[in-house]
């Protein structure tokens, strides 16, 4: 009797154990430890740049400045022009490019640089002006104005330098030299020698041992025009 009870009890327990086994087979497996890749480890262990700055750039090579253009020798000297609005204008240019412009109370000075047919004046006050320029036969054309060489110094031909033959009197010749002297001839003989000075549109002839004579003058298309109280005479360039 006791044996039967134990067998019966065994039959009751077996289904319970079987149910537990079935339930265990359908459960979620316990979580496994995560596997970290080598690259992840490397990136996580690399220290960050504390400054956050990018890699240094390649050093920039400095370009040497272009050599300065020599100041044209033909511009060097004293120049003068005359206008109805501003009166007498004077321009002084030196071999190192220094300049000084004078007109009445106006006095501007500084440095001039030339690039081709353009000249730039930069004053000590910081202001600048760029103009077209050209020289022909000792006459400087600058900003639409005609300047004549007012000195007898080196650095360019005088506007009057050369020989001029009379148009009203073809037997008369005036010869101006770059050293500031002149000679008047007639029929091949010398009638006067002396010095001359140009100031704006005024030409003063100072004959040796005589009184000076001042005339308004202009040079255009190789023709020299002199105007005095006695009248107007013209000469054409012959050399």
Automatic annotation (TrEMBL):
Top-level taxonomic group: Bacteria
**Extent of Low complexity compositional bias:** 34-49
Keyword Signal carried by entry: yes
Q: Where is this region: Disordered?
A: 28-71
The stretch of residues making up the signal peptide is: 1-18
Keywords noted in UniProt: Signal
Q: What is the protein's name according to its record? A: Lipoprotein
Species: Lentzea pudingi
């Amino acid at each position: 009797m006791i044996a039967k009870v134990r067998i019966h009890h065994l039959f009751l327990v077996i289904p319970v154990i079987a149910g537990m086994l079935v339930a265990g087979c359908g459960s979620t497996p316990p979580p496994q430890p995560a596997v970290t890749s080598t690259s992840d480890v490397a990136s996580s262990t690399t220290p960050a740049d504390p400054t956050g700055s990018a890699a240094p750039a390649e050093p920039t090579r400095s370009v040497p400045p272009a050599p300065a253009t020599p100041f044209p020798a033909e511009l060097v000297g004293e120049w003068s022009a005359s206008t109805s609005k501003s009166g007498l204008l004077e321009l002084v240019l030196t071999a190192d490019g220094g300049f000084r412009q004078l007109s009445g109370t106006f006095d501007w000075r500084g440095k001039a640089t030339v690039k081709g047919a353009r000249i730039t004046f930069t004053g000590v006050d910081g202001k600048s002006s760029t103009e077209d320029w050209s020289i022909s036969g000792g006459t400087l054309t600058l900003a639409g104005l005609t300047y004549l060489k007012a000195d007898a110094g080196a650095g360019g031909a005088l506007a009057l330098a050369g020989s001029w033959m009379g148009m009203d009197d073809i037997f008369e010749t005036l010869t101006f030299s770059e050293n500031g002297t002149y000679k008047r001839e007639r029929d091949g003989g010398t009638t006067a020698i002396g010095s001359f000075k140009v100031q704006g549109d005024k030409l003063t002839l100072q004959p040796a041992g005589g009184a000076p004579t001042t005339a308004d003058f202009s040079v255009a298309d190789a023709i020299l025009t002199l105007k005095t109280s006695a009248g107007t005479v013209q000469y054409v360039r012959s050399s």
